[in-house]
Amino acid sequence: MNVRPRRLRRTPVVRSMIRENHVRVDALVMPMFVVARKSDAGPISSMPGISRFTLDQAVAEAQELHSLGVRSVLLFGIPDRKDAIASSNYDPDGIVQRTIGAIKTAVPQAYVIADLCNCEYTDHGHCGIVDEHGDVDNDKTVELLVRTALTYAQAGVDCIAPSDMMDGRVEALRHALDAHGFTGVTIMAYSAKYASAFYGPFREAADSTPRFGDRRSYQMDPPNAREAMREMTLDIEEGADVIMVKPALPYLDIVRMARDTFDVPIAVYNVSGEYSMVQAAIERGWLERERTIDELLVSFVRAGADVIITYFAKEYAKRADTRT
């Protein structure tokens, strides 16, 4: 028999008809940086096309995103003050708390996710409370995360996304949220968050570069895969509703392992460095813009991701009905 698979690739119609994987706009999440000081707003030099917003601008952006079909945003706050204990993070009148309330008022159907960490709020740039030896104290940091998470919940957040990689934080968060009546608040855990070189542009955007040392003692070592499975198992057992792999592109094998192992929703974070390197290649004419972005995003779906956090969300949504 003369087998010719090319018959099913001949035209745009047949290719679309038998396409195995699709990127759904309603599965995309747009990260947003919101500033407490108006002077901190504006374009991010290392992330072309991405800006830091004032509260009013963030609300307008959420409204536009929703009209395009991107119904979920992930909030990061840039405060007007920092200290050793990240006190502006758990301030009920903090920038993230106010933005949550404003977006939920303006766009009630929006699904608002708040990143839960301390690196943007500490004067040392680490993700938690630093002890006298310069190490991040796991348990004290978890207490701080719980305190902050409750203020996010009180502001009306739909989902809390702990990105700190402290041990036991999902269980502590779930217990505290439930105990205070916030049983409907989802936890999307950064379960396999690697100590990656791909976070560089984000640290400019969030002003979160550590003032000393690095985060390798609490974020995962890039060569490890079995350890990621253990981290995800623990988070699921502790009550995580969604687990995440971060970064996305260099860790598609971890996404596939997770998909083959767990029956819970899996998110990926297409992080700042992945975004910026693609943008740089596009700007230099080395890559074709639309095809590259489409191919990038569908790779996450093909690997097994249900939710894609990406800075390309808005651009992709604008031309969602034009692909063949």
Shape: globular
Residue runs with pLDDT of under 50 for 5 or more positions: none
- N-to-C CA distance: 30 Å
Mean pLDDT figure:
94
Helix content: 25-40%
Strand order of the largest sheet: 1-4-5-6-7-8-9-10
Give Rg in angstroms.
20 Å
Q: Briefly, what CATH class?
A: Alpha Beta
Number of strands: 10
Question: CATH H level: which superfamily?
Answer: Aldolase class I
Number of domains: 1
Strand content: 15-25%
The CATH architecture assignment turns out to be Alpha-Beta Barrel
Walkthrough of the structure:
This protein has helices at 12-17, 55-68, 95-106, 138-155, 169-179, 200-206, 226-238, 252-261, 272-283, 289-303, 313-318, and strands at residues 28-35, 42-43, 51-53, 72-78, 111-116, 159-162, 186-193, 242-246, 266-270, 307-310. The chain has 324 residues and is an alpha/beta fold. It has one domain: TIM Barrel. A hairpin with a 7-residue loop joins strand 2 and strand 3 (51-53). Helix 2 (55-68) packs across helix 3, helix 3 (95-106) packs parallel to helix 4 and helix 4 runs parallel beside helix 5 (169-179).
Topology of helices and strands:
Blueprint: H1 12-17, E1 28-35, E2 42-43, E3 51-53, H2 55-68, E4 72-78, H3 95-106, E5 111-116, H4 138-155, E6 159-162, H5 169-179, E7 186-193, H6 200-206, H7 226-238, E8 242-246, H8 252-261, E9 266-270, H9 272-283, H10 289-303, E10 307-310, H11 313-318
Parallel strand pairs: 1-3, 1-4, 1-10, 4-5, 5-6, 6-7, 7-8, 8-9, 9-10
Antiparallel strand pairs: 2-3
Helix pairs in contact: 2-3, 3-4, 4-5
